[in-house]
Design goal:
- It contains 16 helices and nine strands.
- The protein is of the alpha/beta class and 357 residues long.
- The protein has a single domain, classed as TIM Barrel (Alpha-Beta Barrel), CATH 3.20.20.210.
- The protein has a seven-stranded parallel sheet. Strands 2-3 form a two-stranded antiparallel sheet.
Length: 357
């Protein structure tokens, strides 16, 4: 049964709680961005950072996929490096990709990082969330986000986001105490930053761990898991579901289940049926269609969406991609994915849901 727009926040929250739903909610990571002509029109007039830091512009591009595709949740349009900038690293975003000046390379540079006041120094983020909530209405879920500590640490050490994190890995393995201190500083800043978003109206928050795949299971447990737990524990009384996405999630799934997350968002290398068997009925799943499938034929896109829902029986499942939507994705294909997920049958077994801690 199709759920109307007025029910989408409740639908989303019920899925996060592993409660019975009429259908799975659907949204896509990076759903606001370059594949949408509406975004390109805004981007032609404004820089990337100008959009991020102007609440009305950030709200407009956040709302675009909701209007164009009918997704069931709106994620804030921003950048994970906003926190790094607020902590004291100058940020520039040229066409070649983001650059952080004065990268963190030693203990002294870690200790020069600032504990910032999000309500003052990233006020534009809270204002953007409020504007999205105002425009979308109280029954559409808005998702806030931040980088997971390890991913942000990688970019703060490397000074850029172009895929080589060898310097960060070297620090972790050669100077683990320095990396540990950096991760703790980031976690502390992230707690306050996500609280700002929840207080502004975010119905849920997600941590993006893009570089979890580069950590061994032992490194993930020793370095990343403890600081994620600190963040999620600090947010446990805020009433907003906590979502953890990790690329390379299959090798870390059991550890991710100990993070305090209400929802684990997994990539396409993780089999959803196997994940559900491992996690049981109390942790929701998000994902996990390969974004490249959206470059193919309509029939394949719709089948992939239906197959993903079938693997979870629709129980505690938020249909999404296994990573961000690719910039060259045709809008019609993105719409086909959303429509297929929203109309996929959900033969839900008898399971008890749970309240969010």
């Amino acid at each position: 049964m199709q759920v109307g727009p007025e029910d989408r926040k409740l639908l989303f929250l019920r899925a996060c709680r592993c409660e019975a739903v009429e259908r799975v909610p659907v949204w896509m990571m990076r759903q606001a961005g370059r594949y949408l002509p509406e975004y390109q029109a805004v981007r032609a007039k404004h820089t990337f950072l100008e959009i991020c830091k102007t609440p009305l512009l950030a709200a407009e591009v956040s709302l675009q996929p909701f209007r164009a595709l009918g997704v069931d949740a709106i994620i804030l349009f921003s950048d994970i490096l906003i926190v790094a900038e607020a902590m004291g690293l100058p940020l520039d975003v040229p066409d070649a990709g983001p650059v952080l000046s004065n990268p963190v390379r030693d203990r002294e540079s870690v200790r020069r990082l600032r504990d910032f006041d999000p309500a003052r120094e990233t006020k534009f983020v809270g204002d953007a969330v409020r504007e999205i909530c105002r425009a979308a209405g109280p029954r559409i879920p808005v998702i806030g986000f931040a980088a997971a500590p390890w991913t942000l640490a990688c970019y703060m050490v490397e000074g850029q986001t172009r895929g080589d994190i060898s310097t960060a890995l070297g620090m972790l393995r050669k100077e683990p105490a320095i990396m540990g201190e950096l991760l703790e500083r980031i976690a502390r800043a992230t707690i306050a930053y996500l609280r700002l978003q929840i207080e502004a109206g975010a119905a849920a928050v997600q941590l993006f761990d893009t570089w979890a795949s580069e950590l061994t299971p032992g490194e993930f447990d020793a370095f990343e898991l403890p600081v994620i737990r600190v963040i999620f524990d600090a947010l446990s009384n805020r009433g907003a579901p906590r979502i953890l996405f990790a690329r390379g999630s299959s090798q870390h799934l059991a550890s991710m289940a100990k993070s305090g997350a209400d929802v684990l968002s997994v990539d396409w290398d993780t089999d959803l049926a196997e994940a559900r068997a491992i996690l049981g009925p109390r942790i929701a799943l998000q994902g996990n269609v390969n974004p490249s499938i959206l470059l193919g034929p309509d029939s394949g896109i719709r089948q992939a969406a239906r197959d993903a829902v079938k693997k979870t029986c629709g129980l505690g499942h938020i249909l999404n991609l296994g990573h961000g939507i690719l910039p060259q994705t045709p809008v019609a294909n993105a719409r086909a994915f959303v429509e297929a997920g929203q109309t996929a049958p959900v033969p839900i077994p008898a399971q008890a849901g749970r309240g969010l801690s």
